[in-house]
């Protein structure tokens, strides 16, 4: 039997006035976990910039100082006594400062997760060479036939994308080591062969996207007397309509370091130019270390991301520097982590007959939903911060999308 929970009705989602907040929200819970009988107050709009003096910004760290505390990525480990940065260019000798600056910048040319994955591939490649008796002089720079042999070792077993990613890692390793890349036409065709020989079992089926019906099912199944569920619904709406990767919004664990690059409450603001839009600044994304802006546009209640997020901030009042989806418990504030978020969503969706979903399903689901609603593809791509190629790769429901843009073409003269 389905359990009914008190919830916000669509009419109650239209205003943040304390007079029409449901009774179960009439408790103000502080970050310490203590409650009072005070009615929760609406989130105040951003105030004008203060003219008070602010603390002086921290001193800039030089490349050399930063490098001393920055662990050397695996790609840059010295290989066979070889220096990966030349000190001489022809008759010109570079200063130590120039060498250190280039080294520091080069080590930040890839995302941290990419460096970690690429380092693992390098270790596997060197292990392969050892097993095959390949001398070190043919390992770096890697002879093309050695590269082909490494790529072909996965033929009939691996997906073609795995082999290509492995070669991309080795190419990055060569760039990091200042070694000539010898891969050419032969390697290109070997990779094509691995792709053609890949077994069906190596190919992951496309991840099913979240859709608006699932978001409504989630809304109906959550218990809005629970601050955690309020945070879950807000995160779901933001990830869906903002076309976000969950890793850009939620930490993977409760460790403080896991939330270092995640948005806080200070990163959320209302648009000064349009009342139907809000902006969420992502401090760092998968492709942009400097961060990107997510525009949240007003939607029909109760699936409106702006209202869901504002209600979360009303119920879960915490310090502005806290991660955005922090919620209150009797023991104090707690981060909403990605695993716990997905667990809660899947509890409701699986019970309703939906398949289990992964984090990326929100991003591709929001994209597909906007396209099906007739929003111009260029607008959707810009809102979702998609590159042109990736945007097309993750389209879903093409049989529904194509008629919106290509049906009943006028062929009369």
Automatic annotation (TrEMBL):
Record GO terms (molecular function): DNA binding
Record keywords: DNA recombination, DNA-binding
Keyword Membrane attached: no
PANTHER family reported for this sequence: DNA ADENINE METHYLTRANSFERASE, PHAGE_INTEGRASE DOMAIN-CONTAINING PROTEIN
Basic residues composition-biased segments: 276-286
Superkingdom of origin: Eukaryota
Region (Disordered): 36-67, 267-286
Official protein name in the record: DNA breaking-rejoining enzyme
GO biological process terms, semicolon-separated: DNA integration; DNA recombination
Coiled coil: none
Listed InterPro entries: DNA_brk_join_enz, Integrase-like_cat_sf, Integrase_recombinase_N, Phage_Integrase-like_Recomb
